[in-house]
Model the fold of this input.
Amino acid sequence: MDEIVDSTGVILWSCDKVAAAGFYVVVPDFLYGDPYVPESSDRPIPVWLKEHGVDKGFEDAKIIIDALKSKGVSSIGAAGFCWGAKIVVELAKDALIQAAVMLHPSFVTLDDIKSVKVPIAILGAEIDHMSPPALLKQFEEILSAKPEVDCNVKIFPKCAHGWTVRYNVDDPIAVSCADEAHQNMLEWFAKYIN
Done:
């Protein structure tokens, strides 16, 4: 699921890694070619978000899941980056998928996490105003009280929001952290998607 800032290349690259591990990967563009542009003073984030509601993304995701199931796909995982994490948690609440991964999630609430019904990995950043470590720890506490839902909450030190898709490829530490998160995502899917 999409990251609100255009990081299509890195998302596709990480999806290629998942596909290389033997998974069938679908990468929908829920933003319809219109990512958020932080430099645009004409469309600050609140304006952009009104035009790109996660409710529409959730409805679009359900159509894709139905299409996959009609083709015989019986086990589906979903990964959401930033804005896309909200869509993933909605899918996990309705058990429309079998495994969920949220990477530097945005707009996910405690009530969302309380309703999760499938195994979920939450990969967050130490430096993140959208989902600060204190909130991620609350997510972990809620999920740990639900033995029927396996969870993994991991906070990457010295990383900032967006580190898995918006990083300097010339910075070996940033690359290493992003690679580790991508590997964690792949391992989660390998554990729960048959």
Remarks:
- Residues 1-7 have pLDDT under 50 and may be disordered.
- The first helix runs from residue 8 to 20.
- The CA atoms of residues 77 and 183 lie 15 Å apart.
